[in-house]
Each structure stands twice: as structure tokens, then as C-alpha cells.
Amino acid sequence: MKTSFPNIAQYRLRILFRGAFLLLAVATIAMALYVLQQEKQLSYKNYQASFRKTGDQVLATLRHPAGQLALLNPRTENGGAAALHPILLPFPSLDFDDQNKVRQAITMSGCLVQYGDDGALCVAIGNNPWAGGFIYVAGSFVSGELMPHQRGEQDIGDAHRVRVTVTLRGQTYRWIAPFEKNGDPNAVQTRGAHGRLTGFLDDDSGRVGSRPVKDFRGWIWQNTLCSKPGQDDGAADCPRSSFFSLRLPVGVLQDELFQKKNPVWPPADLDNIKVRIEVLPPDDGSPLFDSQSAVAARAFAVGDLASLLLPGESLRIKKRGTADGADLVSLIGAEDHPDDASRLLSRLVRRLPVDEVGAPNESRESVVTSAGIYDVTLIGDERSVNRSLGVVAARVLWFVGAMLLALFVAWLIIEIGIIRRITMLTRRAAKVSKIVKGSGGLDQFDLTDLRGADELGVLASCLHDLLRRVKEDVEREEIRAEQEKEMWHAVGHEIMSPLQSLMALHGTADSQSSRYINRMQQAVRVLYGSASPSEAFQSTVLQVTAIDIGAFLGNVADNAPLVGIADVRFSGEREGVMVRADDYSLEDVVTHVLRNADRCRQPGSMISIDLKTTETAATIAIHNHGSNIAEELIDKIFEYGVSDQLEAGANGSRGQGLFVAKTYMAKMGGTITALNVADGVVFSLGLQRV
């Protein structure tokens, strides 16, 4: 027994097109997933190396003197000049008498804070409480040649001087330290002077007492070279850098040390101690340097290590031997794009398989300082790779979505524009082919080479049979149309002859009969040679001119009884309103509307014609008192052949008048509408004013 599948070949093109587009869509998604999987594998390997590198950078930073200083002062943040506080040094004290030792100590420890071109400053205390409880200040500033103060003189306004203000625990200490040159004060001044900064209590008087502060110590050294290149080192106005170091005796701290057996050091309120340094020039000029108004560069702090951490990584630093065992510092890497990737994409990235995925990385190291041992724990989080890939996937999604959208649009165009039309034509052509084959016909068109079992082959076979029958139908239709046209020619010719005779009898200009004969001739010319009345009316070309609508409507109302329409009244301006219209066609429109109004009005009631105008339009309202138009017909009464009268054809009403009215109004650029009112119907005709 032979089994056949006659319908599979008909769907061959559709299966081919849809299968191709489906394969392209699957390949696009598979390619995106493969790229993400490879990217994830590579990212995991890179993360292992990046984690080790981050650990090395953290340890190298903490083992540097600046890092050790940050460990000793974990809460210290140099946010600017207004927040200058002492910090704890990794040394017992500063050898403030030796310039080189002081410079080396503050530079290597990272204590020195830069204030741009104005100078630098370090305010600190030693890590040994038995060094005396002093606050050390060291720094530099730029000025001209230093002017010394003569020892024994109480007026210090003619010399360079340093003013120091320390505020802590509700008390304020103020010292003024003028520069006193070493050696013979009467000797000739040389470049690069150095000397003492002798401290006195400051009372803002510009004068000092005879006895300096006992434990206040200070030194200053001025460089012999200009601080700016290109200037003569021997010039008097050459700006030079001066380095100074101070030891400040703070009584509150010193008293606390000697009152307790085991004093707390550093002080718990170290961050609340405020220090202000001012370098004043001779006379009353503005300060050469003021730590409160100058802008300081931010010093390194332990919190800066967070910038080295990737999202999800955590860093904990604990000082070994502390009683509470709490973390000194706990940092977590910030999220770069926490909201860029959706949960669905993140879940998809997590499910992508990769090789050699182990447990989260963890590194434990120690940093040895003079103040103790610090344990550093760095914990990695490989989920940050998934989050980063989620962000990448969100961006790739736009490109994949665009490609899928392009494929969908292309498929939709082919499906709707080609395959769907071919399918419809195939079905309809197959149905028509059966009728044509049953009726027979002449074999005028040869499409046998295009026949086949697929869709286009079926379509070619159907068209081969269909076109022969269509040709026959076209030939018969042409014969019928020619016969009807000849009939209309004959009818028009026979009607035009007596109308010509009537025009000769009633052709005077003042005769109303002449007007109606002209309208009859126009109607015959409209229908003359057309295949149908509706086609004739729609193909009519009107001669639109400017007419006085008031005079026109008045004439129509006056002559209405002559055509069998009594009781027509016109209200409105009789002259001066010019509109664009065709005189005869507009009279046909108004007459058709009046006949409908006359047929439907109550016996003895009046038909009113009102004219209303605006700057751009004129509206003619024809109102009759009678029954309303049925709601289901009010939108259809202007169509050809529609009438609200039963047996309209027998009574001579063919539903043609309102169709003509709407057609003519449209050709004149106007409108016509019908509206049911409480006591009847109002037809509104709108025309453009000239």
C-alpha cells in the first residue's frame, strides 16, 4: 500500500523561511552565552591573580612608614586646615635640635602634610609618655630674608615670628616665638640664616615679657637658594624656604603624666586637640603661612586601602594583644554598579559553568611596628566577578536584543508581506481554479513551466486557469459597458433636442423658466455618457465662482412655490455675503434638501432657511417641523439609494437627492450634515466665504 503526503510540499517555503530565522535566533543567543561563559572563565583566572596582587599592595603600604603611621592613628583623617590635630609618631620623640634628623623623621613617617606652595607641616606626639608629654611641630614655609629680633627687646613687630595656638579640654595655650639669630646679633647679615625661635606667652599686644617660656624650644633654618628656579640667589627679594621645628610644653598633658602611675598614652582625646600655626612677617602684614586658612593635601589614612579592594572583598586589621579583640579597621570594597545588572542576568551568570572554581580566597599576614604587631586579614569574594559580568551581560543584552529584534522584524516582513499573501493567494486561486476548470475556457496563457507541488507552483497553475476566464469576463464587460454607453448617448440626445427648443421659447434673461431649463440641460450633461448615475455625479466638474449667498437664498425661497414647495421662509442678510459655489449645483442641493423637508414636515408648518456667517464660513440651516430621522439611518441618508420611505422606488424617491447634495457640496469645498432636534430635523450646509 502506497502512502503519500500531498500537503507537505505546499508548506515547504514556509518551513524553510521560519526554520532559517529560528536557527539564526538560536545561534545569536548561543553565541552570547558562549562569549559570557568564556569571559567568566577568564575573569575567574584574572581574579586569582588580582587578589594576590591586592594582598601584596596592602602589605607593602602598611609596612611603609606612612602606612605604620596610619596604623598608629587609625581614626585620623586630615580633611583640611581647619582639622589640624596631633598624630602619634612611631618614635619616642623628635630630636628637634637637629635639622637633618627632624626632616628625616617626619618625611619617612609620612607625618608631613603639604599645603601647596605655601609650605608643609607636621604636628605630632611621641609614642613614649615619659618623653615629657610634649607636642612637636615641624614644617617649612617660603618667605624673603628672615629678619631677627634683638634679644632683650620687648617689641617684636620688626622680626619674623611664629605664633602657636593649642586648644584642648577647654583650655587654650598661645605662644609667640620671634626669630633670634645665632651668634653676634650685630654681625653682617648673611644668606641662609638660622637661629632660635624663643617662645613667649602671647597676649596680642605685639610685645613680649622679659622671661621666655622655660620648656618651649624652637629652631629655624633658612635655605641659601631661591625656592623658584631662574632667580638670582643673591637678590634681596629672592623667596627662600625656611624649615623650623618646635617643642610645645602642654601643661595639661604633663600634669596628667605625673599624677598617674600608669598614664594612658596616647591621650584618648588626641583627635580633639586643635593646633594652629601662623608665620607672621615683620610689621603688621598678612601671615606668610596660616594652617587654618591654607588648603592642606589629604594625608594617607587606613581607610584609603578601600580603594585597592574589589567589590565584595573585605580587609580586617587587628592589633595583637588587645583586650577586647575588636578589629582596628574593617573595610569592604565598594560596589561599582550595584543596580546595573538585573537579578535574572545575575542568576544566569552564576549558572554559567567554569573550570577550577575553588572556595573564596583568604590571606592572613602580620605587620610588625614599634608599637606592636598588627594582624591583616584579606578575604576575597569571587561573587564580585559574577556581579561584574552581570553588568557586562546587561550591556551585551542590548546588542543581542537589537539583533533578535532585527531578525524578528525581517521575519515579520517576510511573513506578512510575502508568505501570508502567497498563502492567501494560493487558497483563493485554488478555489477559483475549480470554478474556471468547471466552466472551461480558451487556453490563452501558457504558465505550465511554472507549475509544481509547492506554493508558487500551485499559484502558477491557478493563475493559468484563472486568467483565461478573466479575459473572457473582461471582454463581455466591455461589450456591456459599450452598449449601456450608447444607450445613454441615445437617451441624452433625444432629451437634449426638445430642451433646445424650449430654450428658444423661454430663453429671455428675466424668465425663470430659462433658469430651470439650464438646470435640466446640466443634469442631462452630467448623466450623458456615464455607465451609472452615482459614477456620473462623482465625475462631475463644477464651475465654482463667487456668488451672493443671501440674494441666492432669497431667490430660492421666493421661487419655491413655483416648484411645489410652499411656506418656505428665508431669514438672514439678503446681500453682501459672498461664498464660493456653483450656482446651478448649489440650487440643486438646496432644492433636494427642501423636497426632503417638504415630504417629511407636518402639514401647514413652515420650512425655515437661516443664514449664519463667520469671518471664514457661511452656514445655511434648513429646518422643518416633523418627525426625526431614525438613529440607524441618520449616518446613512447621504449614501446612494438610501431612503427612509417605504417603497421609495414606487413613489419616485430613489435615495438619490441627498447623495447628489453631499457630492456637490464636497466638490464646492463645503459640508452638509443632518441633525435631529426636538421638533424636527435641521440640515446644515457649510460654504467657504470669499
Automatic annotation (TrEMBL):
Its EC number is 2.7.13.3. The keyword Nucleotide-binding does not apply. It is an enzyme of class 2 (transferase). It catalyses: ATP + protein L-histidine = ADP + protein N-phospho-L-histidine. One of its GO terms (biological process) is phosphorelay signal transduction system. The keyword Kinase applies. The chain crosses the membrane at residues 15-36, 396-418. SUPFAM superfamilies: ATPase domain of HSP90 chaperone/DNA topoisomerase II/histidine kinase. It holds the Pfam family HATPase_c. It comes from the Bacteria. Gene3D superfamilies: 6.10.340.10, Histidine kinase-like ATPase, C-terminal domain. GO terms for molecular function: protein histidine kinase activity. Residues 490-690 form the Histidine kinase domain. InterPro entries: 2C_sensor_his_kinase, HATPase_C_sf, HATPase_dom, His_kinase_dom. Keywords: Kinase, Membrane, Phosphoprotein, Transferase, Transmembrane, Transmembrane helix, Two-component regulatory system. PANTHER family: SENSOR PROTEIN CREC. This is histidine kinase. It comes from Collimonas fungivorans.
